[in-house]
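Help needed: design a sequence for this.
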């Protein structure tokens, strides 16, 4: 009987080692248990047949005792062979047994423990929330090796002797399952080792010449110099061309105002020094305020001066103080946010009138919390549909923002937004899916878009006095997401905003706006009816 059982076990162990060698497992776990007896190498059970001097069995054992010892030794031998295989293949493993087990005293495991990549982790179960101490050792090659996590006292341990009347079994069986925190600790250690092994394997690929074809080509200094030929860092602008053109025009207006009193030569000399330029700009701010200019014009002039003269920042406080005073007199008025119901109604009406591009651009901007201009001037290549990703799911699309407003202020040279609305995604697939990459999403002019915007609002009986413009789409989308319970950190990601104070301009001052409350009853009915038809119109695109 024993010989047949041994033959069957030999076949099973051979198959297991073959599977380990072929990387069929991510990690190996061993506990000295068998279906016949538990803890064959536990000191409390084996103290009559083993000792520290004879961990593989005392001499002079009876036949029954020798059979028990042989079974345990075979199991220990097999586990040591698996450990050797895991060490050679760099697979993570861990072997658990009581701290006092004779398994740790066997010659083969003592020899394995001298390997530099393995070690012991000794711990008490009570550290991980169990009511008993149960000191245990784990032999492993993970980051847990060479560590001790012992009880620090201050509480009473449950003695694991006798039976538990509550569980109706022995206390040793009750203490068998691992505490949740212990399992999490072991799992994290195994996962970390796998990540490190994969990272090392990727680094080793660089040493294989045949695989370097897959690596990015490194440019030489000569190649980089050739690409930079004719480019001067001094000439690179950190603002958009239209912004720089506006600021140059405003600066010329400041110089003309200054030359009325002191002439062109004196004005040029006064503007060459930051110490004299700052008080002059302060006086010019007073002039702009008196003639009815906008605060943004004054801001642009100060920003332009800071770029012209690097040391102007040390003298510009008087100018920025005037900006704060101007804001106190004329607080900033944000664009009125477009409510979600009104956006759906406008898109529904546009689809009914045969303007599908207008409707989908409006919905993409609103659902993705984008600036309407970013979508209106985009091309088909900026729209990443599920079909472009060869995906069967149609619940999400991505939109690439090529020239984001914050691109030169640490926000990323290219940014993206996502739209999670299955009806909108399906409609975009139908309308834009077969278009060429360079096709404009809205091929008509900005004036045409604005004219259609006004016509739809007139049809919905929305008065012009509310000031609902395309600029309110992004703010309305942010407020709508906030009303739906979207967390603040997720809103920051969706809106591609880096700082909480920027988001405050959208939420603190606009979240309580009730634009629909200023509409007539007939306008509200028209908006509600049109918005309810949007799913039908989208399905027909």
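Sure. Designed sequence:
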């Amino acid at each position: 009987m024993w010989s047949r059982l041994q033959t069957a076990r030999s076949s099973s162990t051979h198959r297991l080692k073959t599977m380990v060698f072929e990387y069929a497992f991510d990690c190996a776990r061993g506990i000295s248990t068998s279906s016949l007896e538990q803890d064959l190498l536990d000191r409390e059970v084996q103290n009559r047949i083993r000792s520290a001097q004879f961990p593989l069995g005392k001499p002079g054992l009876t036949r029954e005792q020798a059979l028990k010892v042989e079974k345990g030794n075979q199991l220990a031998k097999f586990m040591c062979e698996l450990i050797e295989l895991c060490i050679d293949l760099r697979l993570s493993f861990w072997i658990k047994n009581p701290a006092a087990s004779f398994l740790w005293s066997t010659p083969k495991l003592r020899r394995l423990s001298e390997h530099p990549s393995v070690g012991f982790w000794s711990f008490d179960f009570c550290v991980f929330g169990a009511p008993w101490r149960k000191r245990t050792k784990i032999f492993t090659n993970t980051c847990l090796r060479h560590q001790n996590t012992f009880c620090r006292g201050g509480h009473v341990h449950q003695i694991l002797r006798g039976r538990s009347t509550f569980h109706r079994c022995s206390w040793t069986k009750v203490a068998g399952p691992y505490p949740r925190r212990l399992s999490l600790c072991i799992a994290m250690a195994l996962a970390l080792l796998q990540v490190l092994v994969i990272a090392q394997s990727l680094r080793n690929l660089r040493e294989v010449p045949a695989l370097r074809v897959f690596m990015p080509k490194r440019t030489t200094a000569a190649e980089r110099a050739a690409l930079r030929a004719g480019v001067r860092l001094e000439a690179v602008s950190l603002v958009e061309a239209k912004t720089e053109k506006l600021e140059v025009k405003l600066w010329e207006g400041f110089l003309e105002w200054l030359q009325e009193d002191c002439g062109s030569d004196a004005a040029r000399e006064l503007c060459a020094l930051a110490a004299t330029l700052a008080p002059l700009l302060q006086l010019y701010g007073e002039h702009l305020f008196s003639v009815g200019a906008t605060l943004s014009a004054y801001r642009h002039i100060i920003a332009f001066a800071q770029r012209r003269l690097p040391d102007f920042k040390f003298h510009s406080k008087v100018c920025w103080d005037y900006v704060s005073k101007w804001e106190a007199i004329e607080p900033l008025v944000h664009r009125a946010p477009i409510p979600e119901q009104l956006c759906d109604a406008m898109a529904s009406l546009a689809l009914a009138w045969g303007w599908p591009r207008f409707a989908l651009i409006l919905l993409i901007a609103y659902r993705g919390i984008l600036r309407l201009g970013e979508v209106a001037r985009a091309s088909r290549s900026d729209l990443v549909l599920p079909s472009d990703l060869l995906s069967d799911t149609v619940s999400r699309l991505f939109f690439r923002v090529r020239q984001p407003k914050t691109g030169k202020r640490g926000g990323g040279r290219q940014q993206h937004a996502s739209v999670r609305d299955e009806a909108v995604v399906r409609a975009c697939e139908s309308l834009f899916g077969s278009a060429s990459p360079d096709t404009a999403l809205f091929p008509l002019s900005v004036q045409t878009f604005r004219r259609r915007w006004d016509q739809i609002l007139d049809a919905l009986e929305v008065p012009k006095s509310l000031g609902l413009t395309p600029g309110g789409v992004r703010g309305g989308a942010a407020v709508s997401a906030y009303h739906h319970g979207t967390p603040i950190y997720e809103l920051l990601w969706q809106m591609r905003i880096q700082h909480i104070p920027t988001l405050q301009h959208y939420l603190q001052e606009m979240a309580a706006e009730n634009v629909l409350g200023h509409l007539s009853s007939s306008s509200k009915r028209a908006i509600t009816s049109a918005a309810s038809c949007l799913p039908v119109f989208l399905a027909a695109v």
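The mean pLDDT is 83.
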